[in-house]
Design brief:
The complex is a heterodimer of chains A (about 90) and B (about 210). Chain A has about 90 residues and is mainly alpha-helical. Chain A has five helices and no strands. The radius of gyration of chain A is 23 Å and the shape is elongated. The relative contact order of chain A is 0.09. Chain B has about 210 residues and is mostly helical. The radius of gyration of chain B is 20 Å and the shape is globular. The chains are: A mainly alpha (about 90), B mainly alpha (about 210). At the A-B interface, helix 2, helix 4 and helix 5 of A face helix 1, helix 2, helix 3, helix 5 and helix 6 of B.
């Protein structure tokens, strides 16, 4: 209970977890977060899951797109081939 | 950020550009990435075309230090940033509904997780999930549900890997605004993937 009373609540921790991915947080804040994880498996899990999302998104442009839906239409594909062959944008 | 098109290294002898093969091998992936980012077919097609034209012009400087795919993706990322920079302030910035505390139903009155609504254990785990097409298709659809401006900010940070400062400069937003948008985007995306892909036990299901 002592820890619960002296660290931020989950709602604030989720915000801090996100911010920690974008800027260095003050030491005092990071310590408070560590203590919070001792009593809260949900926030710890939340942190790990955001970490995973970051990793997945980094690999998305090169690898994830292999498995996504949607393709160039045959016309668009043809247009691209003409464009790269002539080095110019095709005029409509 | 990196600018692959001005890499100064010489190309290895005998490596000749084959742009038509690029269209076949990378066209769909480049297109899907562009479409995820700009959400409009014509603009996505234009961006892919501009990317390939830059690639044709600069192929001599591509030293093969990275894969062909990441070289092309790098060019596309620059094109996408230029696109959003030019768009500047034209886009609608207010997604008030998204910013109202829509996840408050997951926290109790004291702002702790409601236990049965907290993040559930994810299965399959990370590496395994990333091998599955269903994961990426859920990702695609969840990213598509983010409000447009939030999506621009979020993907520029996480997929183009610009620093927070660079995102702010490119899209002309304040840092405080940036953090709020990233936080909300992460929370929404996490929840959406949990519901639509991961079969955790604690999560609420649709």
């Amino acid at each position: 209970m002592f820890i619960a009373e002296h660290t931020p609540k989950c709602h604030d921790i989720t915000r801090l977890i996100s911010e920690s991915l974008d800027r260095p947080l003050p030491l005092r804040t990071r310590i408070a977060m560590r203590f919070h994880y001792l009593i809260c498996a949900w926030c710890e899990r939340y942190r790990d899951q955001l970490g995973f999302l970051r990793k997945a998104l980094h690999s998305c442009p090169e690898q994830g797109t292999e498995k996504m839906r949607g393709s160039l239409s045959p016309e668009a594909r043809e247009k691209l081939k003409v464009a790269v062959k002539t080095g110019k944008r095709p005029r409509p | 950020m990196n600018a692959p098109e001005i890499s100064a290294a010489a190309s290895s002898p005998g490596s000749s550009a084959d742009p038509e093969r690029w269209v076949d091998e990378h066209g769909d992936c480049l297109y899907r990435y562009a479409l995820t980012r700009v959400r409009r077919q014509e603009i996505a097609e234009d961006l892919v075309q501009e990317t390939l034209l830059v690639a044709v012009r600069t192929h001599d400087h591509f030293a093969g230090r990275s894969s062909e795919r990441s070289w092309l993706v790098g060019i596309l990322k620059n094109k996408i940033c230029d696109h959003f920079r030019k768009l500047g302030r034209e886009t609608n910035f207010t997604d008030l509904e998204f910013f109202s505390d829509e996840h408050s139903d997951r926290f109790d009155a004291e702002n702790y997780w409601i236990h049965e609504r907290g993040p559930s254990e994810w299965k399959p785990e990370g590496e395994e999930a990333m091998k599955r097409a269903e994961f990426w298709q859920a990702m695609q659809s969840c990213l598509g549900k983010l409000p447009e401006r939030v999506a621009q900010v979020f993907m520029m940070r996480e997929m183009d890997e610009l620093s927070g400062k660079e995102v702010c400069e490119t899209l002309n937003i304040t840092e405080a605004n940036l953090w709020v948008m990233l936080h909300r985007a992460r929370m929404a995306l996490r929840q959406c993937l949990e519901i639509n892909f991961f079969d955790g036990e604690g999560g609420t299901k649709l």
